[in-house]
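step 3/5: co-fold with pyridoxal-5'-phosphate
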Amino acid sequence: MVSPKMLELGKKSSVIREIFEYGLKRKAEIGAENVFDFSLGNPSVPAPQKVTDVINKLVSETPAEVLHGYTSGPGDMKVRTKVAEYIANKFGVDAKAGNVYMTCGAAASLTITLNAIVEEGDEVIAFAPFFPEYRVFVEQTGAKLVTVSCKKDDLQIDFEALEASINKNTKAVIINSPNNPSGVIVPEEDVIRLAELLNKKQQEYGKEIILISDEPYRELVFTGEKVVYIPTVYDNSVVCYSYSKALSLPGERIGYIFVSPKMKSSADVFAAVCGAGRALGYVCAPSMMQYVISECLDDTADVSVYEKNRNLLYNALTDIGYTVIKPDGAFYMFVKALEDDANAFYERAKKFDLLIVPSDSFGVEGFVRISYCVDTDLIERSIPAFKSLYEDYNK
Ligand code: PLP
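step 4/5: write C-alpha cells
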C-alpha cells in the first residue's frame, strides 16, 4: 500500500532525534537544568539584529504579492544576481546569476544536486565521519553511497583509501569542511591533492567526477584555518550552501546551489538542477527569505559564543583525560569513547544525564559527537558529569 522504502525512513527516526526525544522526556522528569543535552546541531545564538530589521522593512514596504508570491524556480533574479556578485567578490570566481539556484537550505541543495547528476548504478563517495542524511539523500536517487574512512588520529582524508574507492562508477564526491560531526577543516594542501587525484581519475575513466562542497559551516571557523573555496581549485564542482548556521536561520529554510561555470557541462548541470528542483516539488525557495538574505550576505550571527564553548569544553575534557579531535570550526566535537563500543559508552553517559551521540551513524566506530551549540552555562555545569563518567571507567 505504501512505498516500503519511505515507510522504513518514516518509521525509523535518526539516532540524533531519538536521543533528543529521550532528552525531552528526561527533562520533564528531573528538570531541564539537570540534563546535559548535546544532541542537536541547532544554532543557539540568535540571528543578527539586521535580519529582524530587514524583515520588518520588507513586511512594511513590499507589496504582499511580491513578498509572499512565487519567484521563478531558480529564485528571484535580483537575489541571484546579488548572491553571484557576492561569490565573485569574496572568492574571486566568475559567478553569474545563471550559476546560482536558490534553495530551501543545504539539505535541499544536496538532494537537488544529487538528483540532478546521479543515476541508478552511480556511486557517490563521502568521507566518514559524515552527516548521516547523506545516506538517505544518495540512496533515494538509486545511487550507492560509498564511504571512505578518514585517518583515525586526525580525521583528515586518507588518500590511499580514497584512491582505492574511486572506480568507473564514481559520479561524485562530497566534501564537508568544516565538518559535521568532527569540526575538522580540510587543509589547503589536502584540498589541492584531492583536486589533483580527481583530475587524474577523470582522465583515467574519461568522465566527469563532480566534487560537491556541502558547506553550511563555512563561516564558523575559530582557528584562522583557511576554508578553501572548492571552485577555485577544481573545475567540476558544485557548492551547496545554507544560511541555517551562519545566520542562525535553520527553520527558515534558505540556501543556494552554485554550479561552477568552469565545468564543461555547467549549463547542462544547471538545467538538470532546475529539473531536479521541479521534480522534487520545491517550486521555489521561500521568497521573503530570499529577499532577506540578499540584504545580509556579509552578515553572520555572533558565532564567538561557539568559539568560547569550544575552548571551554576542549580544555576541560582533555584535562580530565579524554582524547578529543580538536575542532577548527562548526560547533561539534568528536571525542574518543572510553570503550570500543560507542553505543555502550553513550548508554553509560546517560547515567550521568549526558546526552552525546554515538559515532556509528556517522560511519565510524568508537567516538561520540558533542554538539556545543548550547548555552555556555550548560557546558560549565556539565563538566562534573563528564568527570564522573571518566572516573566510572577508571575506578
Ligand atoms: N549538511 C550538513 C553537514 C549539516 O550538518 C546539515 C545540518 O545540520 C545540513 C547539511 C542541512 O542543513 P540545512 O538546515 O541548511 O538544510
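step 5/5: annotate
The mean pLDDT is 96.
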